[in-house]
Amino acid sequence: xxxxxxxxxxxxxxxxxxxxxxxxxxxxxxxxxxxxxxxxxxxxxxxxxxxxxxxxxxxxxxxxxxxxxxxxxxxxxxxxxxxxxxxxxxxxxxxxxxxxxxxxxxxxxxxxxxxxxxxxxxxxxxxxxxxxxxxxxxxxxxxxxxxxxxxxxxxxxxxxxxxxxxxxxxxxxxxxxxxxxxxxxxxxxxxxxxxxxxxxxxxxxxxxxxxxxxxxxxxxxxxxxxxxxxxxxxxxxxxxxxxxxxxxxxxxxxxxxxxxxxxxxxxxxxxxxxxxxxxxxxx
Length: 283
What we know:
By secondary structure, the protein is α/β, with parallel strands linked by helices. It has helices at about 25-35, 45-50, 50-60, 80-100, 120-140, 160-170, 185-190, 195-205, 235-245, 270-280, and strands at about 10-15, 40, 65, 105, 145, 180-185, 210-215, 255.
């Protein structure tokens, strides 16, 4: 039986892994030349190059967009701020459709944008995703809610576990798993005592839309920008992969590695070479 890591053409690189150091067209060429079948670009890169030009380049290089990164936050102090975020995300959904992205990644926003009202912030997220889901269905671009590690609840995401994300999906779109699901990132979810049960539940619900890998360094120096290359940290990536496979996920494995002081300083082709090797031997 073919497993997720056997073929690089079933693997993808999130462009943040290379540190956004080069124009997007150069990055896309590097990723394709290294043998990867997919890429996950960020909005600022796409907008700088132009959506139509990026779409043409992707087609020419035969690269699949595993996910379009990412939503603007849905939490906010005022209705006007929340409306502006929704409008920005609708624009991004149209870009994702033009890029034929497999999903639009949702990082939902933290509680600090809404004072100290955590339940209220989560209610704003639910309201925002419900509105975006309607637009996503029209465009055929699935929304992938990415739960982030609880350390990000203040500023980045009040959805922090796979279980929370699944509950939100079932509440908003109980009969529409192909258009609203979850992006499972090992960096954010590896610690969850309900990890196995939650991945299995996501699989049964057919809501796993994306799978991101890197590693958690035991001596990490920065919770955002010091992620580890696969195999350099404490996550049981082989075990995690097994859970994902048993849940029925057959999509691409995407490397998303923020590493300001290590990998963002290495030569981009060397980073891709190591990613390829670790994908095939570690995760």
